[in-house]
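Just scan my protein:

——
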Amino acid sequence: MIRVVSSIRDTGTVDRPVVFAAGAFDGVHRGHQAVFRAAIDLAASCHGEAWALSFDPHPLKVLRPESAPPLITSTPHRLRLLAETGIRGVVLIPFNEAMASLEPESFIFAVREQTPRLHAFVVGENWTFGRRASGDVALLRKLGARFGFDVVAVPRVQWNGAPISSTRIRQAVREGDLAAAEAMLGRPFSMFGTVIHGAKIGRQLGYPTANVDPHNEVRPPPGVYACRTRVDGRVYPSAAFLAARPDPRKGPPDLVEVHLLDVSLDLYGRDIDVEFVKKLRDEWQFESVDVLKTQIARDCEEARAVLSA
């Protein structure tokens, strides 16, 4: 079970060497996973514990909200993914104006003072920290020499001739290139959210849907998709619908309608994770309810075929 704390001071109770994997980690993509693996291996070599050190919200949400990137993963989603990496704990520091104003040296000094067993920082080679992101790996190494901790800078993971980044993944998702997004994430792109009550139109058509209010902010283009839906560790073949012109009667504008194939579950109020496997078709307008029902049946059959291949 991963431990999540909001203060660096809470790591002071750890009685073994602490290795921090530091970063924003939006998406928990393959580049981030390389940092976690390096931190876990280093912690094992010194009989210590590997912890992630990150912020909530994303720093740009505070510093430049008008240009802050849409999130691939919300904080609850990110924590779930971090728990799967083998990281022992997460320090999720509340990011605010006071934190943003800390000079790089002051931030690292505070971490060192509050973590007596600090052994090392493991970061991506392009990691920056402190006021105006003025600290870099070179400065971190100097501070490590001064304060007595090691620094490991992990090279950026490449895919298709360029470094993997959250920016590239966002672009791939928005363009509907699910294969590229999966290749960079190391898993299918997914939307994590809470099931809410909707207009129950799908139920009236014979295809009840879970209406998911997504926590993340990046979404694929409108249309119908073959999906896998994760509920409490179990995976269910599904079909999902994303509308280009959401109906305000159905709920929030970013609502995702998910139909679990061949199973009926009461999911209201539960958090689920919808993995997008393949787009089946665009959003269409139908001349009648009967034509719509016929097409939904075809969509479900095509989703079954895709997911069983």
